[in-house]
Design goal:
This protein has twelve helices and nine strands. It is of the alpha+beta class. The chain has two domains: 92 residues; 233 residues, BirA Bifunctional Protein, domain 2, CATH 3.30.930.10. Strands 1-4-5-9-8-7-6 form a seven-stranded mixed beta sheet, sandwiched between helices. Strands 2-3 form a two-stranded antiparallel ribbon. Strand 6 and strand 7 form a beta hairpin. Helix 1 packs parallel to helix 4 and helix 2 runs antiparallel to helix 4. The radius of gyration is 43 Å and the shape is rod-shaped. The chain binds phenylalanine. The site of phenylalanine has 10 residues, from strand 8 and strand 9.
Length: 348
């Protein structure tokens, strides 16, 4: 039975030699299957122990066991070494170089609609106007009735809108804020407010029309307020918005809640009033509607029109933004096209 031990030694040497060639964890597993599993030749030798005479079995068994233990020990060492190596490699390849310059993420930009809305608000806030937030959802009372547009009034048709189930509608004009402010002012005295926000109309969308658009409403009430005050205020606004050289022109118009009513044009900044494609050859561009507050609107708001007068105006936000930035299509404001918006990013 000496040959059993010799065979074991040979198997062990062979396994050790093979182990030198093992360079990865998967091939180490294969090595283990070959030399240490139940089907390995060394295990077969163990089975043969039974054939040995009983008095030799003890020392033979110890010899075979030693070979097995030795290989198991080598396996453990090799496994540790390979794992360590793999970890080192991983750390090396995933190392973060903190000295590299950072990569900039795409930074958003403020929509030109908001830029202009803010600017209009700033200009009037600078003249002492208070900002009054309105409501996108209104009742017919504030959107129409208190503004001299009773049920069936033809002017309602021009502003046909989205009616909500039950009571309420999406406001067609920020002028609804006028009605709220007059009614809610308990002193029934002088006031000056602006009210920016979105309006909605059942319009077919095209280059210059959208079913939603922004307005900034203005309302000033005081004693002896005249059209001259309105004109002076709007001329100042136009110059601050479009440049020192701008002039304004009032054209007679109609709104049910103002009397007299006007449409206000600003002299074209591109051609200095000579006439170009932007102003359609007229030298003037319409920017807002305005007028003296109708006495009936004051009365409906609880004011005494004998004592107080006022003026009101409504500036179209997109219209001003289109003129200021040379934007040709109103739909661009709502499309969230990053390339369009990038043009309005403030340099940092
Ligand atoms: N609300 C009017 C519109 O939407 C504009 C306007 C506001 C006119 C205030 C006069 C006074 O067309």
């Amino acid at each position: 039975m000496e040959d059993l031990i010799q065979e074991a030694r040979r198997l062990r040497e062979e396994a050790e030699k093979e182990l030198h060639e093992v360079l990865s964890l998967p091939s180490l597993q294969e090595w283990r299957n070959r030399h240490l599993s139940k089907k390995a030749p060394l295990s077969a030798l163990m089975a043969r122990l039974r054939e040995a005479p009983p008095e030799e079995r003890g020392s033979l068994g110890a010899g075979l066991n030693e070979a097995r233990k030795a290989l198991e020990g080598l396996f453990g060492e090799k496994e540790r070494a390979l794992r360590e190596e793999a970890l080192t490699k991983k750390l090396e390849s995933e190392r973060v170089d903190v000295t590299l310059p950072g990569r900039r993420d795409g930074i958003g930009a403020i929509n030109p609609f908001r830029l202009i809305e803010d600017e209009i608000v700033q200009i009037f806030a600078g003249m002492g106007y208070r900002v009054e937030e309105g409501h996108d959802v209104e009742t017919e009372r504030y959107n129409f009735e208190l503004l001299n547009m009773p049920e069936g009034h033809p002017a309602r048709d021009m502003q046909d809108t989205f009616y909500l189930e039950g009571e309420g509608l999406l406001r067609t004009q920020t002028s609804a804020s006028q009605a709220h402010v007059l009614e809610e002012n308990e002193e029934k005295g002088p006031l000056a407010i602006i009210s920016p926000g979105k309006c909605y109309r059942r319009d077919d969308d095209d280059m210059t029309h959208s079913h939603q658009f922004g307005q900034v409403e203005g309302l000033l009430v005081g004693e002896g307020v005249s059209m001259a005050d309105l004109k002076g205020t709007l001329a100042l606004f136009a110059r601050k918005m479009f440049g020192e050289k701008r002039e304004i022109r009032l054209r007679s118009s109609y709104f049910p809640f103002t009397e007299p009513s006007v449409e206000v044009d600003v002299s074209c900044a591109r051609c200095e009033g000579k006439g170009c494609s932007m102003c359609k050859g007229t030298g003037w561009i319409e920017i807002l509607g305005a007028g003296e507050v109708h006495p009936d609107v004051l009365r409906k708001g609880g004011y005494d029109p004998e004592r107080y007068q006022g003026f009101a105006f409504g500036v179209g936000i997109e219209r001003v933004a289109m003129l200021r930035y040379g934007i040709d299509d109103i739909r661009r404001f709502y499309q969230d096209d990053a390339r369009f918006l990038a043009g309005f990013r403030e340099e940092d």
